């Protein structure tokens, strides 16, 4: 149950809004963090917390692409395919990933480790081609970088190539 | 180094500047808040912003102070400020940099706006994908609250401003201000019918102002250095200040460039962004995000300010400049953009919901060399039946790529169709009729 495990976090979220329903997206994120996707049980529980009906929760969940109603792999690779990234090679990036992972976009590897999705603009158009993996951005991707990211994630569960606070181009003094 | 003064990106360009509260204070941060809070009347702050000529940096370019003035006077109940950090217009990535590299500049702007309009609560609605950005903002809010710049009784003046960071969850339309409000209320992000406008009935039905991140980040500078100073920068009187332009596509050095409004497209693309990446000449560019109609080499000397770009038949929009080199297939480009709009149509209005799907199918058919000449008329007819017939501006936005590519590169469409016709001549009538 979310309300037991995250009691103080839920109370903190609720305290930010004068109307309870506003806490819906934050609570859905909590549920997704817990199980990797949003279960029917979680939707019912959240409905109870916010005094909504389960369909009110469900209708909201289905509107937003970042909320998963089905399990996804441990690492969810979301590649931007919008035109800015496409101009600098996102279609090639997708074909690399499909080949390396042995799956098509929209599928999950058999071991449940990687899910590959094509998505629309992620707001990193100056540093394409790029992808988001779970909470992290990976930008200015090359085939070598992709190899390293996949290997690192598989081995360590994380990869140091993920983006930090964004600034592009970097100021001249910071360039190595 | 740029030959003009940087305003918004100045701090973050300093070596070692990490955007902490200490860094920001050292750079002169929170002086604007100290200058006005409890000392200058809120209405005078609004007057300053009107005088500065500041216009919204999110896309529509509405004068910021005028927008604030739409709030009902002498309203006693709660009012709200929403910082629009949804940054979902393809081609735009400036707000991410402003928030992740200098979050306190944004927070001080929010606090000033709250003071001016009399709001005690502000929500930063940040797109869900910007997880790092939301964490940086949360940390900055905590720092500012601990230092007495936010929260209850700011700097001992008795004024309250609470800022909360609220993450969206992946929906382009939530950058539209009424869809943003719906989403913030925990609902599907469907734009509201206007009027009533958010100024009278916004978040929870209360008077609300929604301002973009970059717009708000300008406020501390306007307050500290004066509206007269700000009003001389750029292309006065109608386009004052700088813009952080986001250059993407086929240029050598894509990225964010802060320049005074009114520099030419040529200067931005060829001087700041280093020119074309290969040896191919420029073919087309979008001057203001995916919703702005395409422009051509003929428009390179157009000044990047609100009026000049509009006169050239496009819009300055969100400042996302996407550059395409010679050889880029414009039908393909229009389709890619149209696929985006089809995916992101919220589904509320039938012309947009159904029309976007038909536009994608028709464009795909032309690109796959199965088109017919009459498809071009179908495209135009569809576009004309979407634009202006929807609750929000999404309708006008989604037809821009098609109408503008048809305007400038119609022969590319026709060539593809002629190839289809030539192929069709060799097919059995039944097979040809299927398409």
How does this model look, in words?
- The complex is a heterodimer of chains A (176) and B (435).
- Chain A is α+β, with helices and mostly antiparallel strands.
- Chain A folds into two domains: 2-61, Orthogonal Bundle (Arc Repressor Mutant, subunit A), CATH 1.10.10.1590; 75-156, Glutaredoxin (3-Layer(aba) Sandwich), CATH 3.40.30.10.
- In chain A, 42% of the residues lie in helices and 10% in strands.
- Chain A has helices at residues 2-5, 7-14, 24-35, 40-50, 54-61, 83-87, 90-101, 143-156; strands at residues 75-80, 114-119, 131-133, 136-138.
- A four-stranded mixed sheet of chain A has the order 2-1-3-4, covered by helices on one side.
- The longest helix of chain A is centred in the C-terminal third of the chain and has 14 residues, at 143-156.
- The radius of gyration of chain A is 19 Å and the shape is globular.
- The mean pLDDT of chain A is 95.
- Chain B is of the alpha/beta class and 435 residues long.
- Chain B has three domains: 10-232, 3-Layer(aba) Sandwich (Rossmann fold); 244-325, Ubiquitin-like (UB roll) (Roll), CATH 3.10.20.600; 330-433, NADH-ubiquinone oxidoreductase 51kDa subunit, iron-sulphur binding domain (de novo design (two linked rop proteins), Up-down Bundle).
- Chain B is 45% helix and 12% strand.
- Chain B contains 18 helices and eleven strands.
- Chain B has helices at residues 10-13, 21-26, 31-36, 42-52, 64-69, 94-101, 103-117, 131-146, 177-184, 213-225, 227-232, 265-272, 306-311, 330-344, 350-367, 374-386, 394-424, 429-433; strands spanning 80-85, 121-126, 162-167, 208-212, 234-235, 239-240, 242-249, 255-260, 282-286, 295-296, 320-325.
- In chain B, the strands form three sheets. In chain B, strands 8-7-11-9-10 form a five-stranded mixed sheet, covered by helices on one side. A four-stranded parallel sheet of chain B has the order 3-2-1-4, sandwiched between helices. A two-stranded antiparallel ribbon of chain B has the order 5-6.
- In chain B, a hairpin with a 5-residue loop joins strand 7 and strand 8 (255-260).
- In chain B, helix 15 (350-367) packs parallel to helix 17 (394-424).
- The longest helix of chain B is centred in the C-terminal third of the chain and has 31 residues, at 394-424.
- Chain B is globular, with a radius of gyration of 23 Å.
- The relative contact order of chain B is 0.12.
- Chains A and B meet through helix 3 and helix 6 of A and helix 6, helix 8, strand 3, strand 7 and strand 11 of B.
